[in-house]
Design brief:
The chain is of the alpha+beta class. It contains 2 helices and 8 strands. The protein is about 20% helix and about 30% strand. A hairpin with a 5-residue loop joins strand 3 and strand 4. The longest helix has 19 residues. The relative contact order is 0.15.
């Protein structure tokens, strides 16, 4: 994520990110952000320029950014595959899913580090919500 555009967040949002909250809610700071594209990865920082997190931009929504990582990162196929596999492994390892049942939630958004993404399995079908 070397070239991600920087977005400054206010003190309350800084505190929430530092506590692990995955969302940036539209406020006076975000209203001053430059125009961006939904799905763009941005670098969140405080007003002193300190990097806080990599986030997925959604400028037209109330939740204007969703934290992907507290580190600089590149949103690519490898990153996504790693996160999805970790979510699947968690359910297989802790819930025993996949052997006796074919209907369960495979990806649970923020809980799996994939904010805004839900994937449910129903037999041989997947239902994906973004």
């Amino acid at each position: 994520m070397e070239h991600a555009e920087k977005r400054i967040i206010g003190p309350e949002s800084v505190r929430m990110v530092e506590l692990g909250h995955p969302w940036i809610i539209a406020d006076g700071y975000t209203k001053r952000w430059p125009t961006g594209q939904a799905g763009q990865v941005v670098a969140l920082s405080d007003d002193k320029g300190r990097f806080l997190a990599s986030a997925l931009l959604d400028p037209q929504e109330r939740i204007v950014a969703r934290v992907l990582s507290r580190k600089r990162m590149l949103l690519d196929q490898t990153w996504l595959a790693t996160r999805v596999q970790a979510a699947i492994d968690l359910r297989r390892g802790h819930a025993g899913l996949g052997s006796d049942t074919t209907a369960f939630r495979m990806v649970n958004g923020e809980g799996d580090g994939l904010p805004g993404l839900t994937v449910d399995r129903y037999g041989n079908y997947l239902m994906v919500q973004v």
